[in-house]
């Protein structure tokens, strides 16, 4: 039974504590079957010491996979199995024979007031625990929780170092956490059940409405879909709901099975979790719990929806780098136990969510590359004025109590302050991530957030200019892949995925593969597998059957990669000590080869690497220094130069004085007819004069930082 005590963070009972049982031996015993045995209510002051323990056991503990061992004395004490035990039964159990086989009383028992668990467990916080691998001397972010839920916002979670030279995989999943129908919520809350058979152990999916692809026509509302669940697809289930029995009624488990099967094959190093971890409204308790304690609803929901579902070969003990979704804040309210999801970071050996927004790094030590991750909270989008859209508004006046406040957790202090609080949270993240991404030296920069591709596109476009390679999102309940060249919808210039098909809530459209006209993406339920190397990320969309539906490759940084293509001289400068040659370049973007870099000519036209008189501004160039100095007259060959254009070129000669490195190379503006040193554009050129080979030129980033060129 030692494992149980460690799970709950309890010290094992000492001999002195066990001997306290003699204090209760004089109590009168009666037949356990006596109908006259009644327990004094747990709300009585004398029962305060046992209240939380008993409520957790009766509400969540009895469904734990280890409960049979914990509560094996229940039939002796109460005459019923632990799964059938009521709150009163568990109160009597804890009075007579609390879990751990330390008898505080002598069964059978007669009364249940002032149960001895307060003596047996004296001095121990039931759910306090220390993150595995930490000891009392560890005081950093990774081992000690903050005093309030936002105490670590913007901080760096300890870097993960991965060894080995095998293929490296990352899983991405979102909107995965179903309803915990077996939980008896505290605080007078209703049971989390949406349909007749939802009160059961394990996750139950939440039925939502279904619309057409443009979200202009509602095919099926929430109540209609609930009816389909009640009848399991039989009449009067509306056909337009597209309910698929065997899929819609268990999508989290189906996706989890595919998740586990693929994990057993490829052994992912960690998981990116984009939020909406517990439907409908996150952890079923009010915000404000101490950060070093886990409440019994938290423990129960994590056990039933997370710990008991995502285990197995390739998954056990793997980090889940997580963010909050709008449903984790409360869905249509803001004061549920979102802070408990943050607290769980220090009670778990794999859950990582130290704050609503934070940064971490992963180093692939033996493969010679690293990744900087930026986790953002984008839930301000569903923080509207209190009178608006009550069913999807975290700041709703209809669903929040007038007294609602999370001030104790550093959250919104009132319903009226709620929209501004979330807006401020988003506003402070923008300069934070902009600065850190600009400073990043990592091979890859990846942003993870809840709200999907398409929101805040101008902002993410600016991050793209600083080096963001991939945007990982959720919220829409399907699987989508947005490519940079899909300009009709993607204006960010970066690959973006939506992985909101984890199965905690029904999909945007029917999962019927024969009816895909109104599908948002390539799948309705599923996850992503990202295979990462120093040079590329292979993205694979996996559905709930484990089938790979779509693949795409992102090349390093997702920028244009310019490769030396030939030794044909394009530019020779006369009368200079150092002789430079601009070579024609092949341009590729996200592994899609192109013959030239004619993607944003309006931006490229303002500047050019090398300077073919600004006649070659629509082509990319790499500048290198040849071994032999061969000064000659100015000549233009190839590119898009006009015949006999040397005179025009001579007016914009490169000023090569001191051009010893790429950082001292030049960008030229034809309009100004001046030469500008490229050290002003440190983000645009990388490398040194000693060995060129391959370079990256980001004209979009340069244009945005120096629009006057």
TrEMBL record:
This is Acp5 protein. Residues 1-16 form the signal peptide. Keywords: Hydrolase, Signal. Residues 264-478 form the Calcineurin-like phosphoesterase domain. It comes from Symbiodinium necroappetens. Pfam families: Metallophos. GO terms for molecular function: hydrolase activity. InterPro entries: Calcineurin-like_PHP, Metallo-depent_PP-like, Metallophosphoesterase_PAP. The keyword Transcription regulation does not apply. Gene3D superfamilies: 3.60.21.10. PANTHER family: TARTRATE-RESISTANT ACID PHOSPHATASE TYPE 5. Transmembrane segments: none annotated.
